[in-house]
Fold this sequence. Notes:
With 204 residues, the chain is mainly β. It has a single domain, classed as Umud Fragment, subunit A (Ribbon). It contains 2 helices and 13 strands, in the order H-E-E-E-E-E-E-E-E-E-H-E-E-E-E. Strand 6 and strand 7 form a beta hairpin. The longest helix has 14 residues, at 2-15. It starts with a helix and ends in an 11-residue tail after the last strand.
Amino acid sequence: xxxxxxxxxxxxxxxxxxxxxxxxxxxxxxxxxxxxxxxxxxxxxxxxxxxxxxxxxxxxxxxxxxxxxxxxxxxxxxxxxxxxxxxxxxxxxxxxxxxxxxxxxxxxxxxxxxxxxxxxxxxxxxxxxxxxxxxxxxxxxxxxxxxxxxxxxxxxxxxxxxxxxxxxxxxxxxxxxxxxxxxxxxxxxxxxxxxxxxxxxxxx
Length: 204
C-alpha cells in the first residue's frame, strides 16, 4: 500500500506539474520552479487565486502559450488602473456599490515600464497615457495580472482570460526542495476607498 501511495505521488508530480518559465510571477514563483497543478477545480476560482491558462491572442504574439497569472477581476467586476509613479489597481466587485484598492505586497517594488493607465472595454491599456477608465469583466472570464507586473504580459496586454482556457490552479511548489510548500494568495487584499477616485473616469 505504501509503495502504491508513493508511486501515485510520483506520477502526479511528473504528469500534473510544470516548470515555471520567465519572471512575471516573482516573488511568488521564479523561473525553474516545479509547480503541482490542480486541474479539477476550475469551477471554484476565487479572486487572488493563481491560474494557469492559454494566453489569448495570435500565436505570433504569444497566444496559446501556457502562462500563470493571479486573478484580480471576476465576472461582473469592474476594474481599472490609475497610473503615475505608483499605479493603483481598483476593483468594483460585481453587485457592490463600493470601490476597492487592490493591495499586492509585490507590486510597489516591481513597477517597471509596463505599468500605466487602464482600461479600455477589452480590459487592456487605454492607449491614452493621460486617462484611465473602468472595464467590466464579461461572464465566463477573468482579468489577471502578474505579481511582477512591471515585467508581465497579462490582461493589460491581451484582455480577458476565458475560464474555459484555464487548465488548472497552481497550488504546491515541488522544487527547489528548499522552497517546497503550498502557494498562497500572496497576501493580497481589497481595501475600501472613498469615491470619486481621482484620475479615474467612468465609462458606461
